[in-house]
Design a protein that fits this description.
Largest sheet: 2 strands, antiparallel
Structural class: mainly alpha
Radius of gyration: 23 Å
Strand content: under 5%
Mean pLDDT: 91
Low-confidence stretches: none
Helix content: over 70%
Order of helices and strands: HHHEEH
Distance between the termini: 11 Å
Shape: elongated
Strand order of the largest sheet: 1-2
Length: 110
C-alpha cells in the first residue's frame, strides 16, 4: 500500500521502473554511455579506415621501427583504459548514489 492508503498496482520492480528516480538514473546512464560509445567507435573506425585506405600514412616511421600505425593502434588500448577510468569516476559520482537510494527503497518495500 502507498502512504495515502491506496493499493499500488504492479510489482515493486515495476513501480520502481516507473518512478522518476529510476527514469533519471537511466537517463544519466544513457547520457554518458551513448556519446562515449559513439566517440570510441568513431575513433576505432578512423583507425580501421586509415589502415585500409592510407597505408602510406600509417607506415610513416616515427622513430626506429615504430610507425604511425603502431602508435595509433596502441592508443586504442590507452583510450579503452581511459574510458573505463572516466566511467568509473562518473558512476561513483552520478550513478551509484542514485542506484543505492533506489535499492534501499526496494528493500524497504519488500
Amino acid at each position: 500500500m502507498s502512504t495515502t492508503g491506496e493499493r499500488s498496482t504492479g510489482t515493486v520492480y515495476e513501480q520502481v521502473q516507473a518512478s522518476p528516480e529510476f527514469v533519471d538514473l537511466r537517463s544519466r546512464l544513457r547520457r554518458f554511455v551513448f556519446p562515449m560509445s559513439i566517440a570510441f567507435l568513431a575513433w576505432y573506425l578512423a583507425y580501421v579506415l586509415l589502415a585500409s585506405y592510407a597505408p602510406g600514412f600509417m607506415a610513416i616511421k616515427v622513430f626506429g621501427n615504430i610507425n604511425v600505425g603502431l602508435i595509433i593502434g596502441l592508443l586504442q588500448f590507452v583510450s579503452t583504459f581511459a574510458i573505463t577510468t572516466i566511467y568509473v569516476r562518473y558512476a561513483d559520482k552520478h550513478l551509484d548514489p542514485a542506484a543505492e537510494k533506489i535499492r534501499q527503497q526496494i528493500e524497504s518495500a519488500e
